[in-house]
Amino acid sequence: SMMVGKENVILAGDTNFTPKETETIRIIENANGKSIFGDELVSTFNMAHKEDMAYATASVDMIFVSPTIQVIEKALSNVDISDHRALIALLEV
Description:
The protein is mainly beta. Helices cover about 10% and strands about 25% of the residues. It has 1 helix and 5 strands; from the N terminus they run E-H-E-E-E-E.
């Protein structure tokens, strides 16, 4: 596993799955990865670029960290540069 045997790991990106897809989340969590947003975000899509309203309830962008990394701050950006909204995190290693 990518997180096992490594002290400081950050895994971030467009996962193409939602937090409700627990099998994938379970695999990452079993490798000591923790989602810093969990299921807090309703959507990570910028609806100004989407016509299909299904995206309004799809949170597919995620950041996972190993237990050695402390989350100081986290936010979901409102900057209009993509069809996704940027995840922002201030982390301490």
